[in-house]
């Protein structure tokens, strides 16, 4: 029973931290997630121009800061001058971009699980990202508190090369829609999970994934009523901007 069976991770993961209620991918968003009882968070990591891994989603800083331009144009000193909170609300004015190192420390302190997404935006180097970010994450968190995912197969390959042991590194394959050859890909990378866009998931594919023994997570799910028809397919969890929507709305057989 997908609703009541014990799970290797809680069935909700806070997308970019508690991004419905705090500026995404910040320390504040992770603290907020923990405060409402989330046990897992999903965060994006990429590199600044000086090679520092930071928690950030976009190629540029315009949407989520008081500045503009490309992330790759910033070094750490400059990145730390940006206000990454007030775009969301005045309550978060003065929030600073988090380095991966700072974020891992907080997650360790709070005892959370982390789904770290290796975000390879256009023109960026997958190998450099893995080399800088992955050893740091593996060192900071126990293997059971970490799932590393990516849309980018080169990043996933580099990650698996760096840590071939499936018990020491759980890899998640991210897909907008799992392609026909998803199983070949999953086997090659010795994947732990598939993370798919719930709006494009079909029952047949979901059941295939579960029958093959993989964890199946869905992003970005913010509508528990619309989502309810997917649970019976064996979905293991949702990545949500506000997991409390799901905590207080357990899917009922009638839905
Ligand atoms: O990891 C799930 C989800 O975060 C993937 O899409 O664009 O929000 O990073 P995005
Ligand atoms: Mg992401």
Automatic annotation (TrEMBL):
Pfam family, one: GDPD
PROSITE patterns attached to this UniProt entry: GP_PDE
Sequence ranges assigned to domain GP-PDE in this UniProt record: 10-250
Protein name (Swiss-Prot/TrEMBL): Glycerophosphodiester phosphodiesterase family protein
Organism of origin: Litchfieldella rifensis
